[in-house]
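As a warm-up, study this chain.
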Amino acid sequence: MGHAGYGNNMHPAHGWIVTILCVLHILAQPVFAAPQRVVSTFLCTDEYVFRLVPRDRIAALSYEATDRHPVVSTIADRAKGIRAIHPSTEAVLSLDPDLVVMYAGTNPRLHDNLKRLNIPILDVPWAHSLADVRSITAMLGEKLGAPGRAKAMLDQMDRQIAAARAGAPRPPVSGILYEPNGYAGVGDITNEVMAMSGITDVAPLDRLTRTGTLPVEAVIAAAPELLILGGEARVGSALAYTILHHPALQALKGRPTMEFTDLTPLLCPGPWSLDAAKTFGNLARKARALAEKRARP
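Now compare it with the structure written out below.
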């Protein structure tokens, strides 16, 4: 009997049997179980874990997530009530985690100890671009059992990018992001967010010191239309803020648009970094309006 004859003479019940066997085979396959006791050991992984993992499955975040001296986290208020730890082998093991999320290359001693004890570790790579942010967010969504939450974060990114580009002044304004200790915000994701918001970074890279700082004189010589000071409008408790209140910069008031702003969303690269686009866009439009006003006869 040929194959065709066999198929024609097959009893209908046989088809149901095959279907049932297939279903039983699928059900017998191991099902991915989302981690139930997740520990994050670094600020930048805290930001992801808090957004992707249900609160009752977060065993602990690092102390930086809710630290207020200073505030370095975008979730400082929302993460209150979640256990915060200074990551150490003892502190992590006491939480009996089924997954420890770490930023690659951070806390190597803790990483080695956990690996030696066969504690599951998820190493998160550093993002150098918004494209990296997308791939890392999607990867973490899968690993943490939260693909839907990850997709929602990426969708929000798309909306923020579209809004930033639509509202960006044309032509873009020239700008410098000047931070505590005299660091200039050049490169990577910060520049991407500035560019989509209508700001061209004109920080002179050839004037950077060996420590990566930019002298005040170089900032003034660059003559940006917009000078964003990343820190406190008051002098602050740290010497790092002193340079932002340098008399030479204060003398520029009224010429370029110069404002202090909160850069917390940019401290750790992630979808939340796009929150800075709205601030940058507002400053860029303000600087463009001032420049046009000066250009009028």
